[in-house]
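REQUEST ID: PR-0412
SUBMITTED BY: lab tech R.K.
PRIORITY: routine
TASK: structure prediction, single protein chain
INPUT:
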Amino acid sequence: MPWRYDAVLRSVAATVWAIDAPKGRAILELLRIRATGRRIPAAEIRRVKAEAKHATGPALAAGGAIAIVPVYGVIAPRMNLMAEMSGGISAEDLGRTLTTIAADPSVSSIVLDIDSPGGAATGIPELATKIRAAAAKKRVVAVTNHLAASAAYWLASQATELVSTPSGEVGSIGVYMVHFDESAAYTDAGIRPTIVRAGKYKAEGNPFEPLGEDAGAEMQRVVNEWHSRFLGDVAAGRATTRENVRANFGRGRTVSSSQALRAGMIDRIATLDDVVSDLRTRAIVNRERQRASAIAAMCRAAGESAATEDLLIQSGMGEGQAELELYVRRATRSA
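STATUS: complete
OUTPUT:
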């Protein structure tokens, strides 16, 4: 009966959603089923869980200390029911993970392995800020593997580089709220709710009566404000303008990886394995450059010739070995 799920509907109506529309509809239907006391068959729950990717925490790829952070399912503050039913991730938990990894000197790069329809808008701006902060310290690559929609794209756009798999989809830039007008259902059930209120706008947008003009205008204002924030972060992350994002980044739809590349929504198309391999190679090259630079500095300090410097570098001598060799040479000359 409708009066059994008022609290759930009010909670949903108070949430600004940055989520791909089909997933949003599925969540609403799930909430309706649970809130009315009906149970979802155990077999269906097992099927959904089996199909869902599950975030198990960051993993380190060997050879270069590359942290791979899973971002799977619905993103929302303090995930509970949705995580239980269809997989998901807590915005707070993800933020703490990124902050910890960004501060770890043993990690050279961070890969966000994203397969998410988005989620609640609350907490996303703060999480986007943490991704930008991590990207200021080390390379952060967001990989759409295979969906980065709405809030998930909002976050992905803040990375140093945004990559999509060949079959990936990105976008769904937009937000929405939902109002449930249950007044006819209450009338049919012979129930006539009366709201006693203090404060002009108190209890506006409730499900017991049609959406009023003032309440509708306020909901639209809130949605517009969140959308503007969304556009601003994406524009900054992708180094473009709000106008370009609004007009050419899908206009609320998800787009294929090839379309996204043409529009400038992503930087390239590659698989997660390709990205990790590239980063591993980059880390090895950077280490070799640092080693060569250290050997060159020690050679100059020891007064060695350029030929000796080249010989040490080409021989693959590690920094510790090179330092010991140069120490012996200096000691021999001093004697």
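NOTES: The chain has two domains: 2-270, 288-334.
REVIEWED BY: pending
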